[in-house]
Each structure stands twice: as structure tokens, then as C-alpha cells.
Amino acid sequence: MAKFIVTGGAGFIGCNLAMALNARGEDDILIADDLNHPLKERHLSLVRHSGYIDKRELRQALRGGAHADCTAVFHLGACSSTTETDEAYLADNNTAYTRELAEWCLAGGRRFIYASSASTYGAGEQGYSDDESLIPSLRPLNLYGKSKQAFDMIALENGWLKKIVGLKFFNVFGPYEDHKGSMRSVIHKAFGEIGTTGTLKLFKSYRPEYEDGGQRRDFVYVKDVVAQMLWFHDHPEANGIFNCGTGSARSWLDLGRAVFAAMGVPEHIEFIEMPETLRAHYQYFTEAEMGKARAVGFTRPFSSLEDAAADYVRNYLAKGLC
Length: 322
What we know:
Number of helices: 11
Oligomer: single chain
CATH architecture of the largest domain: 3-Layer(aba) Sandwich
Number of strands: 13
Shape: globular
Radius of gyration: 19 Å
Strand order of the largest sheet: 3-2-1-4-5-6-11
Helix content: 25-40%
Order of helices and strands: EHEHEHEHEHEEHEEEHEEHEHHH
Mean pLDDT: 96
Largest sheet: 7 strands, parallel
Number of domains: 2
């Protein structure tokens, strides 16, 4: 039996969360994942845990009454590809799976904290408020976002948001994202690109109100994301949907300059054409509204982009711990 279940625990955010639990002295952790990448196996080896189970086997185990002693589930496992086109797969893997885990936790009085996504906000026409009354009006731009939105709607309609926590992660970056391929952060990509060529390539802007590289996102360090999740675990009185971001949008130019500075390399940035397939769905601005999380008591400050980039580059990427 395990005190904690962390789905996606060999992946990016899940691995960081499991290591943070270890730092608290917790190692009674069941890791659920799909070890479909050798780097995930390496991540798993970094975590002290009481067991590993394939994500498919976990569903069957819970249906059969296993792991009844678990007190909390952090559900971070999902297909996070924004280009995934298999709608049925996303409906099962991202939406139905989350529903099963939520129902299991609610039935057993367990804490349930799950990953929603800032992609549910779509193009941001309605802003980035985590007011739950706005959930039905959100229009995600891709099937991944729609699969996350679908569970948020289920939780809202069933009244579960009074008892569980969903976190809408913005642009998360940090250690142990190396297995994510094209979905890894631009900081990770930039480190390799600058190290190889001395140059960072960023997309041009196709909207006059944004200069090239002036497109802005809410970049949030994974260590801060983990801290917010653990805070909600420690405060079961706080429930609902909450944003998880710094609350301060920064430009791609800011991000690039932070990486050059962390690497100690002269800045050289070039702008390239954005693929036409992306232009209609590209987000030019995202910024988490953090007032709701602050109102329930989560007051911990977030790392600045410069400080987070320096820690990530110097203490992880430059040492091959990526």
C-alpha cells in the first residue's frame, strides 16, 4: 500500500513532485506512468518510492479494491501533446481516466489534486480568470485542451470542485522535461541551440501590436508549481479550480536573454517564419490571474524568470541533469 499515488510520476512535473515529497521525508509513493521513453526510466531511478505500476494497470487495480490505504492522489499523467489528433484516445486517457480517479478519491475520502491546463482558455478572448462560473464558456483551441476542459466541466456539474483541486498550469519549464521532445520548454531547446550554434531562433510576430519576439507568456518554474501543489495538499479546506502561473507575462525576448545570461554567452537572436499551420492557433499572450489562489492563503512568491532560468541552466542543463 502507498500513502501517495502520483500519476505521471516518471514524467516532468510528476518527477519533480515526487522528489519534493522525498525531501519532506515521504517515500511511501506509488508511481504510475508509462515508461515509453528511456529517460523516464532514469527519472524514476531518481525518486525514492514504494512501487511502480503501469498507468493501465492502475485503473484495474483500483477497480479491484487495491491501494485502499492511499490518502492522496496527485494526478499529473496525461497525453499533453497539443497536436494529438486521436480524439477518442484523449477522451479516455485524459478525461475518463481523471474521472475514475476523482470518483475513487471522493468515495474514499482521499485528497485529489489534478492537472487541468491553461490551454482550456483557448485564445484568451475572455481573459485568464479561474472563476469557476466561466468554465462553460471557455473554448480551447486544440483537442488536448478540450479533453482537459471536459473533465473540468464534469467536476463543475457534479459539485466536485468543493472537494477537489484542479490546477491550470501555464508555461511550465524546469528539470527533467528532456523526454518531452517537441513539447519541452523553449528554455530547454534554447540551451541546446545556443550551445551548438551560438544563436537562438524565435518566431516572428504576425500581429502589429506585438514586435518580433514580443509575444508574451506566463513562464512558471516547475519548483514553484510543485510548491503550489503541496500547499493545496496541506490545506484540504481550499478546493476548486486555480491558476498556476507567476501572474506576470514575459516576452520570448526576455526568456531568450535570460538563457544567454545564464550561459554567459553573447546574445544573438534571429527571427524566423512561423509555420502556417500554427499561425491561426498561436497564443500571443497568456497571464495567470492569481488572485483566487492568493485569497485562499497561497501567498508564496514565484521565482522571477531570470532567477529560474539561471537555476535551471546552471544547476541542471549545464550539468546534464535535464
